[in-house]
Amino acid sequence: MNIELHKKKLPSFGGTDLESNLKKAELALEATQHLQQIWNHSHSQWSWRHLNLSHLHPFKNLRQIAAELSRKGDALNEARWKYAQQQVRVGQLKEELESKDLEKWARLKKEVSLGKAESSLKRMLVAVDGCLKDILALNDLYNQISAQVGDFDENDAEKAESKAHLQRSLIQSIRDVRQGGSISKGEQEYLEQIGVNPGKIQVLIRNYVADEQKETAPWGVEELIFFVRRLADELIENYQVDQKRMALQGFSPQHNQDFSRNGQQ
Asked: What does pTM read for this prediction?
């Protein structure tokens, strides 16, 4: 749609007029439209796997996926209905413009509204596509993790909390030791809340960090993951540090299953 705003050409930059520069800008946007189709979503699949879902315990990654899917589902629901409303608006304006009784300025106003609505539709569709990409990517990652952990319910997630939190605390404690040689006060408190002796852990971590710096150490993080998972398994499964902590505080070591949802209810 090309609506004449002024009979006299309005001056613009580059020694030309505004209408010419507007056409150039429109062509530039059309030429780069494919970029919007590549980066129209929150994260690349690489970012989802490496950065956003970086917990060692699968249930923590599943929880993150659940939170992201909830947000994306809300965004998609809002976007799709806005798109539908805009489609109705476009159809209504087109029908109104078919009338021969419209006065000049009324017709021009409706043409401007129609052009704006159609342009908005195109941008909305890009946003909807991006939201769909994120949802489908997250669902694919959910399927990958589910294939490893098998069937699970809320009780399984509750049981895994101690080990998942300990794995996270150990990773963060290792970073503290790498940076300053000792576990930070905040991380010591986290370990104590789980039921672990920070002083004893600090000795083990210092020895591990010293091995990390050896020339024979691998470039990857496989040894780090093995060390953290093995230590967390030992402390939770064998020493049951979390259960002892709860008992000392007067709490039941086990969660109340009456407050959890079982299976696919």
From this structure: 0.81
Nearest to 108 by CA among 31, 187, 184, 4: 4
DSSP state of 12: -
pLDDT in tens, 24-58: 888 888 888 888 888 888 889 999 999 999 999 99
What are the phi and psi torsion angles at 9 (to 5°)? Answer: -65, 130
Taking the C-alpha atoms of residue 176 and residue 185, their distance in angstroms, rounded to an integer, is: 10
Whether the CB-CB separation of 170 and 228 falls below 8 Å is answered with yes
What local confidence, expressed as pLDDT, does residue 263 receive? 54
Which residues are registered as beta bridge partners of 17? 11
Q: Where are the domains of the chain?
A: 18-150, 159-253
List phi, psi (to 5°) of 17: -105, 170
Asked whether the CA dihedral 119, 124, 130, 133 is positive or negative, the reply is negative
